[in-house]
Amino acid sequence: MIVAGNWKLHKSPKESREFLREWKTKDVRGLEIAFFPPATSLEAVGQELQGTAATFGPQNIYFEASGAFTGENSPAVARGLGATWALVGHSERRTLFGETDSLIAKKVQSALKHGLKPMLCIGETLDERRDGKTERVLERQLTAGLELIPKDAVFAVAYEPVWAIGTGQVAGPDQVREAHAFIVECLKRLGFSARTPILYGGSVKPDNAGELSRIPHVGGFLVGGASLDVSSFLKIVHACQTK
Ligand code: PGA
Q: pLDDT-based confidence at 243, cuts 50/70/90?
C-alpha cells in the first residue's frame, strides 16, 4: 500500500523539516510513504528524506521542463531534487485553476518523460453523483488523462470524490468498493495494468482508515488534512499496517 500525504499549501521548509525529523523516528515498515509538499518546500523535503525509504513529489507540474512559463513548476527540477512522484489533476487544480482533461494528459505524459511517476487524481462532484454520472466521469477522466502514455507506463490513480475532499464526509465503503472496482475495469479496458495502485482520497482519518484499507482494490490513501500532523498521519499508517 501507498500512504501519501498531500500537504496542499501548508508547511514552510522549516515546518516540513520539523515534521519529517519527527516522522523519521517512527516505524512505518511494510508501506510506501509519500509526501506531496508545496513546491517551495520540495528541496527541504528531498534533503530530509535522503537515505530513507519514503518518497515525495510535487503537487503539480507543468508539461514543459523550462521556458517562458511564469509561475509553473518544472518536472525536471523536481526530479533533480529527488522526487519520484508527481500529483496530476487534483480536483483543486481542476476546479480552482481550470485544468482540463487535455492539459492533465500532457502533464501525465511529461511526468513520465522526466522520470516521475504520475499519480492521476480523478473523482466526481456531488451533482455528478446525484445525477448518476459517477462512472461516466471516472471513465472520461481516466481515458483522457492516460491518453498520451504507453500501456506499460508505471503510474498510480487516486480516486477522490470531490464532495469528500476536506469536508469530513468520507465516501462509504460501498461507494469506495464500487468506484475502485470500476476503475480497475476501466484500466483493463484501456490496456493498462490491473495492478496499478488505486488510492482513495477524501476525508481519510485515523478512525476510518482501517475499514477503508480492507476494501478490495484500495491500494492506499491520499491524505490531506490528516497528513499535516505526525500523530494523525501515523495512526492512518498503522491502521493500514494491521489490515
Ligand atoms: P482531505 O484531502 O484528506 O483533507 O479530504 C484529500 C486530498 O485533497 O487529497
A: low
